[in-house]
Recover the amino acids of this structure.
């Protein structure tokens, strides 16, 4: 069930009805847990076995670490969890790489990836694995000392608003809230519904329509000209933002309905003036996870300059690999790592040149940072979206003006140009739009006359039906 599908809305209404009818915490917790398992099992019931096995095994590791903060037990938990992730997500990539190297160096290698190594990736496996690892690492470090019951542990991992694609939460952000589930409150449901609708509009009106524009362009990279290659990449840059930020807002809205607060996962990333700022605004909870559990563990910035640069690059390379089992994702991480290193070098150069914060030069450089950052980030999305690394390389070369289309170039329709313009303006002006709604007081909407609200809802539904694109699976469901 996709959040923007009718089947999910029916499911949500049923869960809210049962939750409202419950009269104790135990009943509310049971409803949330069962609903989460039903939601996950609706994709492919067989994946429930892996999920339940992972829940039980990792809860055992968690309990052991609570009584004995042994490095050996933590390493065993990491090896098993990462081993499962590698088996399901990266085994095919390992075979493909081995086959390619066999062709280059002329040693014996299979001619194709064995069928048993071509697993369908279990939905959300990267996300729920990271959730459980974070708790065990926090226990080992002494950052989390409160005991968690198996019921709370299961709800923390499977809570359906965030389970499939985040936000990636630490135990301190969610467990205590799930241990105190309160009866349904009308104001919380209303506020959550408004947030959910905002995400639904992003997904249905923008992301799904942009997906229909991006697919035919990226399916035939040899037909792209300089202009159409940049157009396709800009379209995907906007598609992935509206798709993932739309999902994240829908997740926040759904949790709000049940009285649970989830952190924001996006904070207007396309207004960033440096790549470092971009990663403070894009997929914030993943950036924080990589910082807290990988970058800092490697030494962070508490080391020499060159070691710090290596830590940045390793973190971004592994972050790229986390996103997908392909070398194009690794190269995407490499580009972002290179940008972050370049940013650090520039900061040192500014300091050496005597550029002070707030000076005219500093303000000018800051303003110039926005278009440069936006272009650099858009360029990296080629390696995220392209079907293969050779396709990504061809498109990127075309965007640099170093290749021409092999045949007739794709024609961009006026309606597509209008859609891109509107989507780009919305992405850039979104903070001002949200601030305006906040000043008006979102809950004041419920004081508007019922006929006016009914007309607005009918108009919204009609708009989504008429102008919404074909329902697409959320992009980050594949990770």
């Amino acid at each position: 069930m996709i959040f923007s599908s009718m089947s999910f809305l029916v499911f949500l209404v049923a869960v809210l009805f049962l939750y409202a009818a419950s009269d104790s915490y135990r009943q509310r917790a049971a409803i949330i847990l069962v609903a989460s398992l039903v939601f996950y099992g609706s994709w492919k019931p067989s994946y429930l076995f892996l999920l339940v096995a992972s829940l039980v095994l990792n809860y055992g590791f968690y309990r052991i670490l609570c009584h004995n903060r042994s490095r050996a037990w933590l390493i065993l938990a990491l090896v098993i969890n990462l081993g499962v992730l590698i088996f399901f997500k990266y085994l095919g990539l390992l075979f493909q790489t081995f086959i390619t190297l066999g062709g280059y160096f002329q040693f014996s290698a299979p001619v194709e990836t064995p069928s048993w190594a071509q697993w369908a990736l279990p939905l959300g496996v990267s996300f729920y694995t990271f959730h459980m690892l974070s708790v065990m690492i926090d226990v080992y470090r002494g950052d989390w000392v409160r005991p968690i019951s198996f019921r709370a542990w299961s709800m923390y991992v499977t809570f359906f608003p965030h389970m499939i694609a985040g936000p990636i939460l630490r135990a301190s952000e969610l467990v205590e809230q799930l241990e105190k589930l309160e009866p349904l409150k009308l104001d919380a449901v209303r506020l959550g519904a408004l947030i959910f609708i905002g995400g639904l509009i992003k997904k249905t009106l923008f992301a799904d329509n942009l997906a229909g524009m991006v697919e035919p362009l990226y399916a035939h990279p040899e037909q792209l000209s300089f202009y159409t290659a940049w157009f396709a990449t800009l379209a995907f840059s906007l598609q992935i933002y509206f798709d993932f930020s739309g999902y994240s807002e829908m997740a926040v809205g759904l949790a709000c309905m049940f009285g649970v607060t989830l952190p924001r996962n996006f904070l207007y990333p396309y207004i960033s003036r440096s790549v470092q700022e971009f990663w403070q605004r894009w997929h914030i909870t993943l950036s924080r996870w990589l910082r807290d559990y990988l970058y800092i563990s490697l030494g962070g910035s508490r080391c020499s300059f060159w070691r710090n640069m290596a830590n940045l690059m390793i973190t971004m390379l592994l972050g790229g690999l986390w996103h997908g089992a392909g070398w194009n994702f690794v190269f995407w991480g490499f580009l972002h790592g290179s940008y972050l290193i370049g940013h650090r070098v520039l900061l040192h150069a500014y300091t050496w040149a005597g550029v002070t914060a707030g000076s005219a030069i500093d303000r000018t450089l800051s303003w110039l940072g926005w278009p440069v950052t936006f272009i650099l980030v858009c360029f990296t999305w080629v390696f995220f979206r392209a079907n293969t690394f050779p396709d990504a390389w061809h498109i990127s070369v075309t965007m640099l003006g170093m290749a021409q289309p092999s045949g007739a170039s794709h024609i961009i329709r006026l309606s597509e140009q209008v859609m891109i313009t509107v989507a780009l303006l919305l992405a850039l002006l979104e903070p001002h739009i949200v601030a305006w709604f906040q000043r008006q007081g979102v809950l004041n909407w419920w004081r508007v006359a019922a006929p006016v609200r009914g007309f607005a809802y009918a108009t919204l539904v009609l708009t989504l039906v008429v102008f919404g694109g074909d329902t697409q699976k959320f992009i980050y469901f594949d990770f």
About this structure: The CA atoms of residues 21 and 183 lie 9 Å apart. The chain has a mean pLDDT of 87. The radius of gyration is 24 Å.
